[in-house]
Structures are given as structure tokens and as C-alpha cells.
Request: fold
Amino acid sequence: MEKLEAERIFLTVAGKVIEFYFEPSEQGIIRNVLISNIKKVWDPSGFLVKKPKRSGFQIRFSSNPPEILVRGNKYYYLDYKKAFDKKRIDTSYYLSLASLQLLLKDVISYLFEKEGFFLHGSSVIGKDKILRVFLAPSGGGKTTAASLLLSEFKKFSDDSILVVRIGKGWNFFSPPFIEKNHFPKRKRAERAEFYFLKKSGVEKKILLDRQDILLKKIISQIWLRGAISPRMLKLISQFIKEHNFYQLSFSLKSKLEKTIK
Reply:
């Protein structure tokens, strides 16, 4: 049986590069299906690039099957091994696309832990190039609020955005994730406003300026790899001071275009 040669694919997110390295293998069909799916999702979306000078992290695939951990009468399949100190994850060709997305979220959070974070929210962008980000707990109406604006605004992200401090300013990036029913598309914005949603029969927009309250609200909407560090706390506090946050009351019958302008 012919042994396939090694192959490398490079994914870029906000200037950081993650390498997918596929070891030589005789598992041709399984390996090729995985590679095909990766290219199908991330090549048309603009996240894949040709060989860069260097990558910041490597996800390495091999033909080794997942390890099985037995605890009593329960079996656990160990799909990957993380070695963040070596900037590498080892996994296999049996990894699902959904599991790969979870790995990517962890890797991206690690790569940006000094200058950014994932914010859980839906967002749209207008002709003024200002990003409107809607924040709420799960089921709080984030996707609904964004959908009410699609006649005049374009969808930016459906479930999360990557917030990054670059120089003295902030940039906002769409994530490389399949979100609900949407394939990812590489996008970037430099200005944003943030809306904490409240379902109500009365449509209203109120500016929020209590830093202590905003800090708690924002932290509850951030995806963290572990405990929040003092450095991350300082970064979030700086982010809050430099942006506008509102409480937005709305209903399914709301016409939000005028309210958020």
C-alpha cells in the first residue's frame, strides 16, 4: 500500500499562524477526508494561507488511533495530547471537525492571552464600519437582535468575536468557527459598540458607565482557558474604559435600526 507523504496546511487568525501537520500515513481515505473537510471550511473563508515564514503553533495529525482510558465500566477516548509549553498538540486522523474547532478555540485563546480574548456575542456591521455587538447569556436574544438588523447591516459573527489589542487600538475579528448554520468568513473591524440585551416591550437604549458593573458583565461573556489572570483583568479593564456599552431593551417587533444609530 502506498504511503502518503507529509502535508502541511496553514491557518491564520488575526496575524497568528497555526500549522496543521499531517504525518505520512497509509490511512489514505481517513486522512484525505479530514484534509478535504479542513480545506472546504477554511479555504473559501480566507483563513488558509500559503506557507508562511513561521507558525506560532502546530496541530500534528497521525494515524495513531485515540487512546482508551477505562474507569470502572466507563470508556473514555483520548483524542489529543496538549503540550502548550512546546506550542504543539498531537492528535489523530480520527478527530472530528467539531472537536478540531474546540481545539482551535483553545489554541487561539492561548496565542492571544497577552493581548486579547473571545467575547461571546452576535454582531453586525454597517456602512459606517462600526461593529454592533450584542451580549447576553445563552438564550438571551443575541442572534435574534442581530437578525432584526440584517436589512441594513451585514452579519459579522453569530456566536463570538475575537477582541485584540493592537498597538494603541483595538481590532475585532470574526472567528474561524462554523457557528450554528454558517460557515466562517474572515472579517475585521476597527470600531465597535456593545449592547447588553434585555427583552422588553419597550424599546430603549441606555448608556452604561459603571466600570465595576461593566467588568462583571464583560467577564461573564468572555471564554477563558482557566482562571482569569491579573494581566487579563487589566486588559479587560482597559477595553472597558475605551468603548461604549449600552443596555438595549427590545422585543421581536422592535425596529432596532434607529435605536442603535
Q: What stands out?
A: The first helix runs from residue 28 to 42. Residues 7-111 form one domain. The chain is about 25% helix and 35% strand. The mean pLDDT is 91.
